[in-house]
Amino acid sequence: MKHPNHPSVDQSDRVVPYNLRQSGRTPTELLISTRVRKSPFWHLSHEAGCWRATVYNRIYHPRGYVRPEDGGAMVEYEALVNRVTMWNVAVERQICVKGPDAEAFTDYVITRDATKIEPGNGKYAILCNDKGGILNDPVLLRIAEDEFWFSISDSDLLLWLQGVNISKKYDVMIDEIDVCPLQIQGPLSEDLMAKLAGEELREIPYYGLMETKIEGADVVISQTGFTGEKGYEIYVRDAHENAEIIWNAVLVAGEEFGLMVIAPAHHRRIQAGILSWGQDLDHETSPFQVNLSYQVPRNKEADYIGKEELERQKELAANWHHPLSQGRTSLYRVLDSMQEFKLCQEDVPLVVKLTENPDHATSKLFTGAVELFSHDCIHALLGRGLLVKDEAFVIGYTMGSGKKMKRWRRNLFLWVWKSDTKLLG
User: Which of 207, 205, 210 is nearest to 221 (CA)?
Assistant: First the structure.
């Protein structure tokens, strides 16, 4: 029997291999120390029943409220998809870039065009290194003409941004600010948020922002989330003073809607095709491996970090070459009208049926529709280099969902390539 840190999955393309057995319970007690921050919502999460946590961005992160003997994560899931839920996501540290050069600096560090983000709006964005590896995938909020907030995923983006500007010397302030978000997610979230912030909240577009007060405390509200359900985030300004005010206001207003405080719902975000940095991608992952090629713009004239390498990869993909392979590759075609394959990552099989899809014949990266017969194993798709039969590799995916992202349609499209040379992704 092999040691669990050395599984049979070939990871020779990695500098540091994935630890594929690092999830799940541990017999070791987690020490609560000053090295890791307790967020302003930490004690409130425990009052709501939090019984387990992890660490994210060096902040303790609540990861369970309903115990397994009481139904566990699926009870939280049912509340999310049927009613409305509140999440403590203070782990999304807010990095502020503010000053006369805020737009130019932000445009240089993200791949997409920051000049097209109007004040009062946001975008999902990625930041890459010079090799095209993804360093972080924040929600980027443009608070004002000269101010951006990076609502970051699990990596030290503050240090990266400050380091970049040592030599670039843009006229900006780059620092973390005392702002902590809560997520309000679920089909009843709009009604709850309108009760808290007024009927004008219903006019906020997807990724739109609204500055207002709740119980006298300043907040920024965005229509964003980590679920695929209708949802919002409340960014609490001066969070160490106002956390309890906002938390308690949501609890009171949410009673009539059946509000439940839950942990971030990874089962739902996986269904929605939403990625989690550190689990599904990291600094050795190309956007072209995880269905983020749309983050590499076709016509952004301004320079940005990683531009040369990412445009090289985009050109290869456009010419039917695998962007991370040293040799020539061809798109794997499904020969029969329907074939059944088994995708395996370690001991987790996922049976799918691939069908030729003429509607996507012009898309060189998609092979066809995929119907999942075991969505409990969908996370098997999130690894790179999964084998289809013997020589074809699943290197990316995208999922469809119902109108207004209300429900998952249980279908997706895979990127499948067949190559005579070893794939690096």
Answer: 210
Radius of gyration of the chain, Cα coordinates, nearest whole angstrom: 22
Strands 59-64 and 85-88: unpaired
Query: How far apart are alpha carbons 400 and 371 in whole angstroms?
Result: 11
**Ranges 76-90, 221-235, 302-316, 403-417: which has the least confidence:** 403-417
**Residue 363 CB contacts under 8 Å (≥ 6 apart), including other chains:** none
pLDDT greater than 90 at residue 4? no
Measuring CA to CA, which residue among 198, 187, 185, 93 is closest to residue 139? 93
Q: Which of 179-183, 184-188, 368-372 has the lowest mean pLDDT?
A: 368-372
- Measured in degrees and rounded to the nearest 5, phi and psi for residue 87 equal -120, 140
Report the alpha-carbon distance of residue 290 to residue 112 in Å, rounded.
16
Distances in whole angstroms, Cα of residue 43 to Cα of each of 84, 113, 376: 21, 39, 32
Which residues are CB-neighbours of 336 under 8 A, at least 6 positions away? none
**pLDDT tens-digit profile of 323-366?**
665 432 222 222 222 233 333 333 333 333 333 333 333 222 22
Residue pair 385/423 in contact (Cβ under 8 Å)? The answer is yes
The contacts of residue 94 (CB under 8 Å, 6+ apart) are 149, 150, 151, 152, 176, 177, 179, 180, 181, 235
Question: What burial letters (b/e) apply to 306-332, b meaning 16+ CB within 10 Å?
Answer: bbebbeebbebbeeebbbbbeeebeeb
Would you say residue 119 has pLDDT above 80?
yes
CA-angle at 130, arms to 125 and 131, nearest 5°? 95
Query: With the C-alpha atoms ordered 250, 276, 282, 308, is the resulting torsion angle positive or negative?
Result: negative
pLDDT in tens, 281-293: 899 989 988 889 9
Can you give the pLDDT at residue 394? 41
Backbone phi and psi for residue 366, each to the nearest 5 degrees, phi listed first: -105, 135
Phi, psi (degrees; rounded to nearest 5) at 102: -60, -45
Task: Of 419, 220, 403, give the one whose Cα is nearest residue 316.
Answer: 419
DSSP 8-state secondary structure symbol assigned to residue 256: G
